[in-house]
Amino acid sequence: MQFKDIVGQRDTINRLTSIIDSGRVSHAQMLLGEAATVMPLAWAYLQYLCCENRQHHSDGELHADSCGECPSCKKIASLMHPDLHFIFPTATTSRVKEKPWSGEFQGEFRDFMLQTQGSGNIDDWYETLGIENKQGLIREPDADGVVSDLSLKAYEGGWRMMVVWMAEKMNESFANKLLKTLEEPLPGTLIMLVCESDERLLPTIKSRVQTLRVESGKRKEENNAEFAEMLVSWLRMLFKLKMKELSAQVDKMAGLNREQLKLFLQYALKVMRDCFLNSAAGVECHLGSGDEKFDAQFPKMITVNNIALIEEALNDAIFATERNAYAKIALMELSFRMSKALKKR
Ligand SMILES: [Zn+2]
User: Fold this and answer.
1) Residues 193-224: pLDDT tens digits?
2) Cα 67 to ligand 1 centroid, rounded to whole Å
3) Backbone phi, psi, residue 138, to 5°
4) Band (144; pLDDT cuts 50, 70, 90)
5) Architecture of the domain made up of 219-342
6) 158 phi/psi in degrees, rounded to 5
7) DSSP-based three-state secondary structure for 254
8) How far, in Å, are 241, 242, 243, 249, 285 from residue 295 at the CA level?
9) What is the pLDDT of residue 93?
10) Domain coordinates of the chain in residue numbers?
11) How many angstroms separate the alpha carbon of residue 45 from the centre of ligand 1?
12) Which of 62, 123, 191, 313 reaches 20 to 30 Å from 335, CA-CA?
């Protein structure tokens, strides 16, 4: 993976290459942002770090890149580098019936990364493993893997690298063992956390890694426009409650992948709170439905009598989504609760 293969992110990439060029590579780093955006950056970063013939450009958007040709670049590009290790969430599968850990799934993970070029998300990974309905975790045996992989002598005489993909999925016992490794880093080792949300990471871990936040750029605005449209059509259905139409609308929402659905529900929650606060304060609130009448009327429906019920219903649906509940059922239940709550104004 070369930086030139990544769309956008030029400022971030130039920052990453300048860190390496300055020789101040930290033993523990975290790239924080959507995995689909961050993982290709991590991959290209490690390739640049190990490249035997780094290319510098005095003109152009990219200041530097790996050569893509040297033996080291080729091994990292094909994920065959003997000093590059991966830790990632796993669960029991039809093949691994107990004590799952990353070591059991290295081949699957490498194929998954090569196929998606790093831009697969957690749902895609679970689908690959056939564990869509389970919650993957990074567990204690994974930590033992980190210690043994990193304590080996580097085959290639350079860096020994460990990528922890979706670091927020680590459980407590993994976190505690990782912490020990971070506290006493072995020389020549690099631990790279790829993390979408650092809220669940131990503060002691966060304080020991050098973090770079990566924005996904355009994606967020696109999401919001799409979400606004979806939210308004759904809200309209909640008043009419015609089963056939509602069911079709819910199908559309359930068609989002789990991560997107969660983002949509969080967006809906934020809009409901804004409607409540603004209408309580007598300020106009724009839903962006394109229908002025609906925009003007809807926020008035959210009052002190129903905001708590609405928040509770949405939070339960977010929780159910996180727990991999069947999306359509969770959304139908949410629709009925919302519809009932809206009548209580
Ligand atoms: Zn190279």
Assistant:
1) 999 998 889 999 999 999 999 987 655 556 67
2) 4
3) -105, 120
4) confident
5) Up-down Bundle (1.20)
6) -110, -135
7) helix
8) 19, 21, 24, 20, 7
9) 93
10) 3-216, 219-342
11) 12
12) 123
Asked if 81 and 149 count as a contact pair (C-beta separation under 8 A), the reply is no
**Would the pTM count as exceeding 0.90?**
no
Query: Residue 73 C-alpha to ligand 1 middle, in angstroms?
Result: 4
Q: How far apart are the two ends of the chain, measured CA to CA in Å?
A: 55
Distance from Cα 48 to the centre of ligand 1, integer Å: 7
| Reported CATH class of domain 3-216 | alpha beta
